[in-house]
Specification:
Blueprint (H helix, E strand, L loop, with lengths): L4 E3 L57 E8 L6 H4 L2 H14 L7 E8 L4 H13 L5 E3 L4 H9 L2 H5 L3 E4 L5 H4 L3 E3 L4 H14 L5 E6 L3 H18 L16 E2 L2 E4 L7 H14 L3 E5 L2 H9 L9 E2 L6 H7 L7 E4 L12 H13 L8 H20 L5 H8 L1 E4 L7 E4 L8 E9 L3 E12 L10
Parallel strand pairs: 1-3, 2-3, 2-4, 4-5, 5-6, 7-9, 7-10, 11-12
Antiparallel strand pairs: 8-9, 12-15, 13-14, 15-16
Helix pairs in contact: 2-12, 2-13, 3-4, 7-8, 10-11, 13-14
């Protein structure tokens, strides 16, 4: 069987059945009636070995191949932090194939660049399932398109597992056919607010990206967490889930496509000056964050940022203004003492082998590696009788310890496996000097809350 990866940016054919148009984002996935009873028994005479594995046990599975698909982000604004994830996926896939594959079946990974566009991403996922006939979706770094098909009920209707996802959006934790390895953006904001409040901050400000759902969800959760602790909204708050974004006082929604943010920066800084902001958070991806920071004179004391800003390029490009900014990750990054851990060292070596230019410090690259390792381990545990139903049953009763994150456990009805994060601060001393471990690790105190549903 083939073990090659392909990257097909061409637009798939349109289908009248594609239910990803306006209004789909407000739909809830229906409840799942299936249980985690465990995989069905392997038929007599079938073994975990080439030539004895049962052959074509399901769509996308043959005696020699397991066909997987994914939408990636090689273009557009999201490529600044998601672009290198494909190297992590391919590193794990290549390693598994070099060892003989899964019960004699090699992994064939089909990748499609959707530019982090929701509609295009949804179309590509339909294409992977219906035309490419993949067995399952792997990692799916492009969260926007995955959200569209999930909220439309497509994965559940087609019984397509999406395994090892990046967790940016809350639907990944409530869809019975998605298994995230990351802490959610909502958990990131909960932890960020809780830590700053416990450290004595009382007046919060937030800048968020209003044209991508990770910004919308995160902004809502950030204010909800702050209100839970303080008893009131952040000054200038508007509900980002239901109202058009505005930039008022110390709650500022901005569009990634704006050429500059001079007016918004002034509004936000003036608002923070009036309220005495002692904690400011930037819920932005790297390209937008750098534009915002370029127009700002100060980011305040120990500003906070989410996982998309945990990249070498952002730290290096931001300069002195970002010195001391706290960034949060749900993984054990190749920084400081973590570098001496065998799992972390292996991760770095595997990424270097896959690409000399990929940023192994990038939290999403590490997440892609963890997610693809989950794919391989879940396929292996499911064994030769490989069906989508059996894979789902395996995952819904599985604990996975990658050595790069806390042990992760998924159960039917509860896919919140990673709810803990650790803080690292950007160090800039006459040049970017990497990150410092702040020795602060926190659990989300409000898991599953503040999704706005």
């Amino acid at each position: 069987g083939s073990n090659s990866s392909s990257n097909d940016p061409s637009s798939p054919k349109q289908r009248s059945s594609t239910n990803t148009g306006p209004g789909v984002a407000n739909q809830k996935p229906s409840a799942d009636s299936s249980t985690a009873a465990g995989p069905t028994k392997t038929p007599k005479g079938v073994e975990c070995a080439a030539g004895k594995n049962g052959g074509a046990t399901d769509t996308g599975v043959t005696a020699g191949k397991i066909k997987l698909g994914s939408t990636v982000v090689q273009s557009g604004v999201g490529a600044s932090f998601l672009g290198d994830v494909r190297f992590a996926m391919e590193a794990v896939k290549d390693k598994a194939n070099a060892a003989g594959g899964i019960c004699g079946r090699l992994i064939d990974l089909v990748l499609k660049d959707d530019g982090w566009d929701p509609q295009r991403g949804a179309e590509y996922i339909h294409n992977l399932v219906e035309d490419e006939k993949v067995f399952a979706l792997a990692v799916v770094p492009s969260s926007e398109g995955l959200q569209s098909v999930s909220l439309a009920g497509y994965l559940k209707d087609k019984k397509i597992p999406a395994v090892g996802t990046d967790g940016m959006l809350i639907h990944q934790y409530t869809d019975p056919y998605i298994w995230p390895v990351a802490a959610s953006t909502i958990s990131t904001m909960h932890i960020m607010v809780n830590q700053a409040w416990n450290a004595g901050s009382r007046n919060f400000g937030l800048v968020y990206e209003s044209d991508y759902h990770f910004g919308i969800e995160g902004a809502y959760a950030f204010n909800a967490a702050y209100k839970r602790l303080s008893g009131h909204d952040i000054p200038g708050y508007h509900n980002p889930l239901r109202e058009a974004a505005t930039c008022e006082a110390s709650f500022c929604g901005i569009d990634s496509k704006s050429p500059d943010y001079a007016g918004n920066v002034k509004t936000f800084n003036d608002g923070c000056a009036k309220t005495g902001c002692d904690f400011r958070a930037l819920l932005l991806e790297p390209t937008t964050a750098l534009k915002w920071i370029g127009g700002s004179t100060t980011l305040g004391v120990k500003p906070g940022g989410p996982q998309p800003l945990f990249t070498y390029d952002f730290g290096n490009s931001c300069g002195q203004k970002c010195d001391g900014m706290w960034l949060w990750t749900g993984y054990q990054p190749p920084i400081g003492d973590f570098l001496s851990r065998p799992a972390v060292a292996t991760y770095v070596d595997d990424i270097k082998a896959a690409s000399s230019s990929a940023d192994y410090n990038n939290s999403f690259v590490e997440g892609g590696y963890v997610g693809m390792r989950l794919v391989v381990e879940a396929l292996t545990k499911t064994g030769p009788n490989l069906t989508r139903q059996n894979l789902k049953a395996t995952l819904d009763g599985m604990t996975f310890d990658s050595g790069l994150a806390p042990p992760l456990t998924w159960k039917a009805g509860n896919h919140f496996a990673n709810t803990k994060m650790r803080a690292f601060s950007i160090q800039y001393k006459s040049g970017f000097a990497g990150w410092r471990d702040e020795q602060v690790e926190m659990e989300d105190p409000w898991v599953g809350q503040d999704s706005g549903s």
